[in-house]
User: What shape does this take?
Amino acid sequence: MERNTPISVIPISDLRRGKDLPAAHAQTGALADIRGRQLRDLRISVTDRCNFRCVYCMPKEIFGNDYQFLPRSQLLDFDEITRLVGIFKERGITKVRLTGGEPLLRRNIEHLIEQLAGIGGLDIALTTNGSLLSRKARGLRDAGLNRVTVSLDAIDDPTFQKMNDAEFPVAKVLEGIEAAAAAGLTPVKINMVVKRGLNEHAILPMARHFHGSGHIVRFIEYMDVGSTNGWRMDDVISSREIVNRIGAVYPLEQVDPLYTGEVAERWRYRDGSGEIGVISSVTQAFCHDCTRARLSTEGMLYTCLFAQSGYDLRRLLRDGTGDDAISEAISGIWQVRDDRYSEIRTTETTSPRKIEMSYIGG
Ligand code: SAM
Ligand code: SF4
Ligand code: SF4
Assistant: This one.
């Protein structure tokens, strides 16, 4: 099976250069796109590999034994990632999230975190399937990681294994969550993707299990990322329905967002025992304040999870281009950004060929 190469690459030379940029943005500092959205977050996919085969992300039929993952030489190395993050920081980012694929499979990921923490002034987060977290949590925290999100799609083994198509016990992920909390990576956030007919019966048991635990479960609407998961609108359970189901047992009230552009809608238990979140990526798109850019494993920059084309920053890193010119290229890319896929998605406009999440970074 051919690996998931970018659909198209926009030559950096086609971008507007500094002299064409609006004066207010030609300097370093916060950058706004043509819809006024600032560049604030960078998600970095540090590996396209994973030890799970979640049906909604890397289905086994496609990502089986003969799937070609990226060779090591194609991956950005830690110095390259750190250099780019330093440049992005000058352009206004305040948060970095390491993801993948499964980021804890990247050898010595702690070293990368240490390097990124060394830049200073950045909130460093990581999203993981939790399989290696129990033994890595302390080291990640010591290296400078600030926050962790753990994916867990059910609290019972049969459903969990049906979702991730791997023989991995829930108990090991729970150990990882507790190790993260013990290491001070709190509050731990837990992502549950809900797919109709597969794990919807696990919504309430998940809420019940973590009710009062201090961890925050976020229920995510199943999205049409990539083109291998066979997404259908009928498989989506809306966050409204999820809140209604949980609220019927544990009464909930909505809480204000912590900051503009917060992806999850927050709900708190009326009995005071914590909160949950819902991420309505499909039914209530939040493109209007999306501040996220994505860097793929091999250094392609994407301005949307559903982008059809990316910009090859690795070439600039490897051909001797200086920091100022790379910074200018990033400016040019962000300032022409017009993405709002989720706002204009309909069943008819769902593109047949999209980049896989494991490559672009979830
Ligand atoms: N392997 C790590 C993990 O699973 O946490 C990090 C990468 S994963 C692509 C990042 C997040 O994207 C996970 O929480 C996962 O559940 C979510 N995700 C993947 N495919 C999705 C889809 N089709 N719809 C909604 N969320 C999805
Ligand atoms: Fe792996 Fe995460 Fe994708 Fe599941 S969601 S297959 S754990 S990258
Ligand atoms: Fe951001 Fe694209 Fe998602 Fe909209 S669809 S919220 S622009 S990543």
Summary: DSSP finds twelve helices and twelve strands in the chain. The chain has one domain: 9-360.
